[in-house]
Design a protein that fits this description.
By secondary structure, this protein is α/β, with parallel strands linked by helices. Helix content is about 45%, strand content about 20%. Strands 5, 6, 7, 8, 9, 10, 11 and 12 form an 8-stranded mixed beta sheet that branches. The chain starts with 10 loop residues before the first helix and ends with a helix. This is ABC transporter A family protein.
């Protein structure tokens, strides 16, 4: 075994041990990691395939026609003044809005008419009704002074409308719907034509007259109600909506003109709202403005409104980046796939109790956090780098166009934030399946909410920016916002550092939010981990604090509560042990490995139930070289005592010291010299037995040949050395082999105190013998606390035994003393023919008048004979005499077993407790 003089492993030794274990573990799961890292390549190939498909076919599955331009009119210098651009498909020219438009067509300003014409109604209201009625009469002409030979300018006086006033201002087509002229009164057969110009071509188009009526309402609320009732329905009279427009002249007078305008857009096609507004709103405002000018300046005053025209534009090519189709939601989902991977890994260690197992064998929080965080950061970085590299190679603009340093900073901050969040969230879950389901729900919900809710908030300029930043405190939305900004800039020339100063660019605030949130959540994650794992609030501010070893003599034993009903009932041996502990606490130095003084654990009652006293004032002292056995029925308090001693739970009151170190404040130091064999095997399924021992040996500061020798000796001591067993994965071991490996782990590295919770459970007789020999050999220079339900095991291994009942220690001594003290009877058994049963009973009464019969069946009888009433020689003499009187088939006399002692003590303690 290892040299007992070895000191505790340093920070870097522990980190090295964990790193080696993690590397070995990942080698066993190499294909899982390969699949994870190759996932971005698969995604990029999918995007590339979609891009290729989009570049080769249009939405109808046909080849895209080529965009060409034709000159319609040249100037004297031979330059083209007017041209039309479109697609050339199958020998035909088709005007297209995707082509470059240097000179968009001029379109007449139109109003959208209701589907039911004629007539149409214009609603009016305002503070001054007389003024409103005058303005209404001035809006529409009573006649049309049109001269078609003078060209298009004269039609500015014609108030025209259409059922579909939404022509594409870039495609050059004529208006397909019939046009209507809105007048106060239509004459019979009042149909005429107007010249509609499309580029250099002027085409006459028929116009029909529609009567326009004005209806005064008392308030804007009535106007709104009337419009609402008619929206794609019928009005209050059951007729189809006839409303053309509505005007609220508010407080207008001869010096003030103030108006609200409602315009009709009820029947627009999907995506044409902006197009309708571009055509209708100017004409609606022009009608009201001209009416007020005629009122204030005279009938001849007017604003001439000839046409509306779109802005020139460059060629609109279909975006080669599939991000334009998929949006930020797609890559948000791709990157968020890392979160469930990290979370499930952390929760797995928690579910299998592997983290606390490592901690109890000396692994500090610092090395654990450093190596675990570094591993997750490494995997996440490989994942993101693969995504960025493959995306850039394949021409995905969101990766290839934007500045690489900006992308690196953004993704670097996010993966750090994501790892920190995973550490916090992992403390909430205790089951891997539950954590996985919740994680993937969060992944897909984040993408959907980002695409259908958060993006609208980003694009809404009226929404306060401070609330945008508040929403980005959710890490998934900050990721979505960053990808959204990268995607927006990818459609142009890409994002550069100078662009971050632009007020419309949100990347700067995203980076700030993620940086501050990462630091804050990392701090919270560490503190929460301390609370969960140790029950104490040890935060990074206190990492540099040194907890000095307390002089045990300076600790005063807490006063014993006399009102505790168990105190007067303490047996002599228990009281003697308590006095011994009191004396040891007063000494400046002691050789005792473990000292417990009035240790108590109370679980608060719930739902009106009383408090549960798991451990009631336990006081014991264990020297080195002693194996102390804890016996007791289920629920007696043995596991609660072990949990307090290994740091899983905090004592309610009392003190306990391991080699002078307080279990409440110095557990981190105690862990370096402690070994634990838990009741359930806590092993990594893919690591071999040898790899387990190498890892835990390094945690105990074993190195080089000393480590190799310790591992081999541990394997030999529990019979796991031969047959290639050490190099087989622990997941292939039988239950007994796993149990023996757990015992070997608890003993490696020369721990000074070892806790074994039912170590021989599930072992066959041969394996149990190997285990017992290992424990006997191991207890020479260390204290071992062992719980067991096997009386044979307790009698063979334990130097002293303590029987626990209902949380209190009932007796403490070695097995022989307990049998002498609590087993004061011999058990006499004799088998004869049934007719001689009375003779056997008389024989026993002669030996001991107070003997008690405990069993009788078909001639076999069993009696308990008080030891002080009989001598063994007298028993043999009486039996020999009986054999001469009647046939004796079998007989025997045995001393009380440890099992009998245990049953008697437990029965009496429970009876006393009930009374």
């Amino acid at each position: 075994m290892a040299d007992p003089s070895l000191s505790a492993a340093s920070f870097w030794t522990q980190a090295d041990a964990l790193l080696r274990k993690n590397v070995t573990y990942q080698k066993r799961n190499v294909w899982t990691n390969v699949r994870l890292i190759s996932f971005p390549l698969i995604i990029c190939l999918l995007v590339l395939g979609l891009q290729t498909l989009m570049n080769s076919v249009d939405s109808l599955g046909e080849k895209r026609p080529k965009c060409i331009c034709k000159c319609l009119q040249k100037n004297k210098n031979g330059q083209c003044d007017e041209e039309i651009c479109g697609n050339e498909a199958q020998g035909e020219f088709i005007p297209s809005s995707l082509c470059a438009i240097r000179n968009p067509i001029e379109l007449p300003p139109l109003l959208q008419l209701p589907l039911a014409v004629p007539p149409v109604t214009v609603l009016t209201t305002g503070v001054n009704q007389s003024l409103g009625e005058i303005l209404a009469r001035n809006m529409l002409p009573s006649s049309i002074p049109l001269n078609s030979s003078t060209g298009m300018a004269n039609i500015a006086d014609v108030i025209m409308g259409s059922k579909d006033p939404s022509p594409d201002p870039y495609n050059g087509r004529a208006l397909s719907e019939p046009l209507y002229s809105i007048q106060h009164q239509c004459k019979p057969n009042s149909t005429f034509s107007v010249p509609i110009r499309a580029y250099s071509t002027v085409t006459p188009q028929g116009v029909q007259c529609v009567q326009g009526r004005f209806l005064w309402l008392n308030s804007s609320a009535e106007v709104n109600d009337e419009l609402y009732k008619g929206y794609r329905k019928g009005n209050s009279n059951g007729k189809t909506n006839e409303i053309l427009a509505a005007y609220d002249f508010l407080n207008s007078n001869s010096k003030v003109f103030n108006v609200n305008v409602w315009f009709n857009s009820s029947y627009q096609h999907r995506g044409e709202t902006d197009r309708i507004s571009r055509v209708q709103v100017p004409r609606s405002v022009n009608l009201a403005s001209n009416a007020y000018l005629r009122y204030s300046q005279g009938p001849g005053t007017k604003i001439l409104f000839e046409f509306v025209k779109a802005m020139p534009k460059a060629e609109s090519t279909r975006d080669n980046d599939v991000v334009a189709l998929l949006g930020a939601i797609f890559f948000t989902w791709v990157i968020l796939q890392l979160f469930p991977v990290i979370l499930t890994s952390l929760v797995y260690e928690k579910q299998q109790k592997l983290r606390i197992m490592m901690k109890m064998h000396g692994l500090g929080d610092g090395p654990y956090w450093m190596i675990s965080y570094a591993y997750f950061f490494f995997i996440s970085s490989l994942y993101i780098i693969s995504l960025a590299i493959f995306g850039s190679i394949m021409g995905i603009r969101i990766f290839s166009v934007n500045d690489y340093i900006i992308q690196a900073v953004f993704y670097l901050l996010y993966i750090n934030l994501q790892i920190s969040v995973a550490f916090v969230v992992a403390s909430v879950f205790s089951n891997v399946k539950t954590a996985t389901v919740v994680a993937y729900i969060c992944v897909f919900a984040t993408g959907l909410l980002g695409g259908f809710l958060f993006q609208d908030l980003i694009q809404d300029e009226s929404f306060p920016r401070v609330w945008i930043m508040a929403v980005e405190l959710y890490p998934g939305f900050s990721l979505y916002r960053g990808i959204y900004e990268l995607g927006q800039n990818a459609n142009a020339n890409g994002m550069r550092w100078k662009d971050l100063t632009d007020s419309t660019n949100g990347m700067k605030e995203v980076l700030m939010v993620m940086l501050l949130e990462w630091l804050g959540i990392l701090f919270i994650a560490y503190c929460k981990d301390q609370v969960v794992s140790s029950g104490s609030w040890n935060c990074p501010f206190f990492l540099t604090q040194k907890s000095e070893k307390k002089d045990i003599s300076s600790i005063r034993k807490p006063s014993f509560q006399k009102q505790d009903v168990l105190v007067p009932m303490e047996k002599h041996d228990v009281a003697q042990e308590r006095e011994k502990v009191d004396q040891l606490l007063l000494e400046s130095r002691t050789s005792q490995a473990v000292i417990c003084s009035d240790l108590r654990k109370v679980y608060p009652g719930k739902d009106g139930n009383p408090d549960k006293f798991a451990v009631r004032g336990l006081s014991i002292a264990l020297p080195r070289g002693e194996c102390f056995g804890m016996l007791g029925p289920n629920g007696a308090g043995k596991s609660s005592f072990i949990s307090m001693m290994i740091g899983l739970t905090k004592p309610t009151s009392g003190k306990a010291y391991v080699h002078g170190l307080d279990i409440q404040t110095q557990m981190d130091k105690i862990y370096t010299s402690m070994g634990v064999c838990p009741q359930h095997d806590l092993l990594w399924e893919t690591l071999t037995g040898r790899e387990h021992l190498l890892f835990y040996g390094r945690l105990k500061n074993l190195k080089g040949s000393a480590l190799t020798e310790a591992v081999e000796e541990s394997l030999k001591s529990v019979d796991l050395f031969n047959g290639g067993v050490p190099d087989k994965q622990a997941g292939t071991y039988s239950g007994g082999m796993k149990r023996r490996l757990s015992v070997a782990i608890s003993l490696i590295g020369d721990p000074k105190v070892v806790y074994m919770d039912e170590p021989s459970t599930g072992l066959d007789p041969a394996s149990r013998k190997y285990l017992w020999n290992a424990v006997k050999h191991a207890k020479q220079d260390r204290a071992i606390i062992l719980t067991t339900h096997s009386m044979e095991e307790a009698e063979i291994l334990c130097d002293r035994l303590g029987i626990f009942v209902d949380g209190s220690l009932q007796c403490i001594a070695n097995a022989k003393e307990l049998k002498t003290r609590y087993g004061g009877s011999f058990v006499f058994t004799m088998t004869t023919s049934k007719i001689h049963e009375k003779d056997v009973e008389n024989l026993v009464r002669r030996l001991s008048p107070n003997a008690a019969q405990v069993y009788q069946l078909s001639g076999t009888q069993k009696f308990e004979i008080p030891k002080h009433e009989v001598r063994i020689a007298d028993v043999f003499r009486e039996v020999e005499h009986a054999k001469s009187q009647f046939d004796v088939h079998a007989w025997g006399i045995v001393d009380t077993t440890l099992e009998d002692v245990f049953i008697n003590v437990a029965r009496k303690a429970q009876a006393t407790s009930l009374s």
